[in-house]
Amino acid sequence: MEKTVAIAGLGAIGLDLARALDAGVEGLRLVAVSARDQAKAESNFAGFRHKPRLLPIEALAEEAEIIVECAPAAVFETIAAAAIARGRILVPASVGALLPRMHLVEEARRTGARIIVPTGALLGLDAVRAAAEGAVESVTIETRKPPRGLEGAPYLVERGIDLAAVTEPSLVFKGNAFEAAQGFPANVNVAAALALAGIGPERTLVEIWAVPGLTRNTHTIRVEAAAARFTMTIEGVPSESNPRTGKLTPLSLLACLRGLVSTLKVGS
Ligand SMILES: NC(=O)C1=CN([C@@H]2O[C@H](COP(=O)(O)OP(=O)(O)OC[C@H]3O[C@@H](n4cnc5c(N)ncnc54)[C@H](OP(=O)(O)O)[C@@H]3O)[C@@H](O)[C@H]2O)C=CC1
Ligand SMILES: O=C([O-])CC(=O)C(=O)O
Known about the structure:
By secondary structure, the chain is an alpha/beta fold. It folds into 2 domains: 3-120 and 248-260, Rossmann fold (3-Layer(aba) Sandwich); 125-238, Dihydrodipicolinate Reductase, domain 2 (2-Layer Sandwich), CATH 3.30.360. 32% of the residues lie in helices and 25% in strands. It has a 6-stranded parallel sheet with strand order 3-2-1-4-5-6, with helices on both faces. The chain has a 5-stranded mixed sheet with strand order 8-9-7-10-11. α2 links the parallel β2 (28-34) and β3 (53-54). The chain is globular, with a radius of gyration of 18 Å. 44% of the residues are buried. The structure holds NADPH dihydro-nicotinamide-adenine-dinucleotide phosphate and oxaloacetate ion. Oxaloacetate ion (OAA) binds at residues 121, 187-190, 217, 236, 244-246, 249.
């Protein structure tokens, strides 16, 4: 049974995902995309086998059964609200933008829409979800990025913190996942996904480090639960077009989409 897909945002994540879908994925058909720069989008379609329709973000939900959001957090609500109102499957990349908008989950319950949060640049959310079916004492995530991967975050800008001046590993933020998502909307979607998989944004603790010379975006999760204790680290290669974003993220979204239509699905 084939499902139609629309992608909002053709940046580091969206363009890679669109190319992969266009190359052919059994059970999935890319039918529409949104982009800010229409001319750039048109030129990106040059090598496509089947050119998707280029539509405003509000219109995507009319065209496809699955709406993949890979746009800046600032336009998340417009994309998500339209998909949910239409009862679609929403796959968000800007997961941090979901935390202060949990009313969207209530709305989805009413319309029959589903919100499927991909693992994204992270790992092991299946184990975190399983642990959270029992008692969990603590969940923490330590994110380490090169300074340029954190530049422009509102938390740093508001405090006048200039990471260009950092010469050694520096802890730039410590707080919960809710605060982290507000202060670093383009950097810690992983913390938001972890919080939703586990014990929620208030109890999930986050540290963000700026590490000069680091070549990988590195996330370490530590879970202390009744059923298990585990520590997991992932070292993602930053994308060339957007160093905030790891190259694994579009692949994770692709794997997530396959899971929506595949006969055999591995991992809970
Ligand atoms: N869940 C996870 O693990 C991860 C999530 N993310 C998040 O995913 C989201 C996308 O990331 P990424 O691809 O790296 O971001 P990019 O900045 O590379 O791409 C975003 C794209 O959205 C487009 N865009 C902006 N405004 C609009 C609009 N109004 N309508 C349509 N398109 C628009 C931009 O267009 P143009 O190119 O024309 O400017 C751009 O191509 C971000 O919120 C990011 O924080 C990132 C990494 C990991
Ligand atoms: O790609 C990464 O390492 C994670 C990231 O940017 C995010 O969570 O927003």
